[in-house]
Amino acid sequence: MRTFFLIVNCYANHGKAKKIWASVKNELDTQQVQYSFKLTRHPEDAREIAKNFVSKLTLSDQSKYVIMVVGGDGTLNDTLNGIKDAKTVDLPLSFIPSGNNNSFARGIGLAKAPLFALKQTLNAQESVHYDVGYYQEMTHNKQGYFLNDYSAGQDAYLTSMLHHRKPSKIAEKLHLGFLSYFVALFKAYMDQESFPVTLRIGDKYEFFQHTYIVNISNQPYFAGGFMLSPEADATDRQLDLIVADNMNFFKFCLLGILVYFRKQLRFPGIHHYKAKEIHIVINSLEFGQVDGEELPNQYYDLFFKVSKYPFWVDVQSIPVKERH
Length: 324
Known about the structure:
Blueprint: E1 3-8, H1 17-30, E2 35-39, H2 45-55, H3 59-62, E3 65-71, H4 73-86, E4 93-97, H5 103-108, H6 114-122, E5 128-137, E6 142-146, E7 149-153, H7 154-164, H8 169-173, H9 177-191, E8 195-201, E9 204-217, E10 221-222, E11 226-227, E12 239-245, H10 249-260, E13 270-275, E14 277-290, E15 293-311, H11 320-323
Parallel strand pairs: 1-2, 1-3, 3-4
Antiparallel strand pairs: 5-6, 5-15, 7-9, 7-14, 8-9, 8-14, 9-12, 10-11, 12-13, 14-15
Helix pairs in contact: 2-4, 7-9, 9-10
């Protein structure tokens, strides 16, 4: 069995991850698994921790370790980018979903219950590759990787609101979580104006003058467990792009309902693409997000391509009922 280095964000999901970490640690001790761990203290700590750990590994140690993340999508994103920053080896990743959304875990079939997800990791005998997205932002000379999505416009604003909302126990008990989604949807429409977008896929250019949503997805789920790109798949070696334009208030509300029921791709004004490489230019200051983490209002000149990364997980090693 591999030796595990754990990066733990006890602050994830408003502090609920602390209890999850305690149960995971107890299970690792019970099974006498070899591991060490590091707790994050501040935002983006996971990126620096991962980079430092990977950078110091000897060649012989590189084949022994798996990095296990206990936290949310943001912690997983930071860890992936920290490993890439080290520029040495793509150390396999595993993930105990402990955040507010856990979209990537849901997208690849990881169990919702932390100890079942741990079982999927400990049952693995070899790494399996899943797609991740790579982006290069030409205007600000920035690059990085994402597991879920990169978006600009209303979708980014909506994702930010859903990502930061505190779940209501009463709403969860009465299954009324959809109400916060529609409230956030209404606010996103009222606060966001349309903007022009230039799209290039291969040798083909398309121009949109009144765009509200630009979303590049690696897997179907985004904040709140909703699907904006229901055909996105983290194993198909492609990225999915959704562009929504010419949205009046009625069409936007109808789109929100169709997204809730996963029927949006045939809706007029929704443009869906699948490609290995995508180039997008937005010449106006727009709100953005990457894997639920906010970006400042900025101009965008973005190049995207699909990549792959090794994960130490055996999704099929537990029954379907245990995954849900």
